[in-house]
Specification:
The structure holds 2 protein chains of 2 kinds.
Chain A: H1 2-39, E1 45-50, E2 53-59, E3 66-71, E4 77-83, E5 86-92, H2 98-101, E6 104-105, E7 112-114, E8 119-124
Antiparallel strand pairs in A: 1-2, 1-8, 3-4, 4-5, 5-6, 7-8
Chain B: H1 2-31, H2 46-56, H3 59-76, H4 80-103, H5 109-132, H6 141-165
Classes of the chains: A alpha+beta, B mainly alpha.
């Protein structure tokens, strides 16, 4: 009887411990999201990565309107559009088109990521005074 | 001996049914448009079936159902890369849920499910890191963690209620 009671208590304790960890993670994530949202800033250097390597870097402030088609290593094409100093994934040959739905990128917070074709657009730039290297050598178009 | 073979056949049929259910739910879920344009956020409904099999039958049986689901979904919808994403995510999810199932002695299935969803996200982040080799994707971690905890909890609740109603006779 006593033994049964003990296992019952430890069972509840276990559930409590695991739930507490979960709640902590949830709170930590919410705090992290709030901090990230607060720390986002507008910048104007778009860097495009294809297959993990830097493909090109575009200064959006100086760039004219254009589209850029990238052929990924799996043969799919991604079209990136720059319009009025904004950048977005205009179209992508993939199943769910999440990157297209992300719309225009204007802040440093969330990169536009096309996982199926491995194309990433990140925004960084002079307003970012952390580890980003501001003194870039050249801007390629 | 005869009854032993019978029960093996019965189990095979039931597990095949669960695998088909899991795949069917997975296929249906791809038809649901994603309201939040953050890559990696999804309901993970097919995990309800994996959870049910894990809690009713065991880890080995659940891994079998998961394997069938992964291979079928890759053949019909995916690419090799998407198989890598879902396989790493799915396996990590199952391992974590299996461990928590033991630790919690089959109780609080929704908590185990939420952790499973987090593990699934973690697995996909690992692959995304390896594939894109860009640390930029890591900013998504808190967003996906919140989504994972919520969706994992909800799918866990679904599994909880199904397990309550599911007749014991089909799992003997």
């Amino acid at each position: 009887m006593d033994n049964k009671e003990n296992t019952k208590i430890s069972e509840n304790k276990r559930i409590f411990i695991v739930s507490a960890i979960l709640a902590l993670m949830l709170v930590a994530s919410i705090v992290a999201v709030l901090v990230l949202q607060a720390s986002k800033n507008n910048a104007s250097i778009a860097i495009i990565y294809v297959d993990g390597e830097k493909y090109t870097e575009i200064n959006l402030e100086e760039s004219e309107d254009m589209t850029l088609t990238i052929t990924a290593s799996n043969g799919s094409h991604n079209t990136i559009e720059i319009k009025d100093h904004n950048i977005r994934m205009q179209s992508a040959e993939c199943k769910n088109n999440l990157c297209v739905n992300q719309g225009w990128a204007k802040d440093t917070l969330l990169p536009i990521v096309c996982l199926p074709n491995n194309v990433v657009i990140t925004i960084s730039g002079p307003t970012n005074n952390d580890k980003e290297d501001n003194s870039y050598d050249a801007i390629t178009y | 001996m005869q009854s032993h073979t019978d029960s093996r056949i019965k189990q095979l049929a039931i597990l095949a049914m669960f695998a088909a259910l899991s795949f069917g739910i997975y296929a249906l879920e791809t038809l649901i448009p994603n309201p939040i344009p953050i890559p990696g956020i999804k309901l993970g409904l097919s995990n309800i079936i994996i959870l049910i099999v894990l809690y009713r039958y065991g880890f080995k049986e659940a891994s079998l159902v998961l394997t069938v689901r992964l291979l079928l979904s890759c053949l019909l919808f995916g690419t090799l890369l998407s198989l890598l994403y879902s396989a790493v995510g799915g396996c990590l999810c199952l391992v974590i849920e299996g461990i928590l199932n033991r630790f919690l002695k089959g109780k609080a299935i929704f908590v185990a499910s939420a952790f499973g969803a987090l593990a699934h996200n973690a697995g996909q982040f690992l692959v995304a890191l390896l594939v894109t080799r860009s640390l930029g994707v890591l900013v998504y971690i808190p967003y996906l963690a919140i989504a994972g905890i919520i969706t994992g909890f909800l799918t866990g609740l679904c599994a909880f209620f199904v397990l309550k109603k599911l007749p014991k006779s089909i799992s003997s």
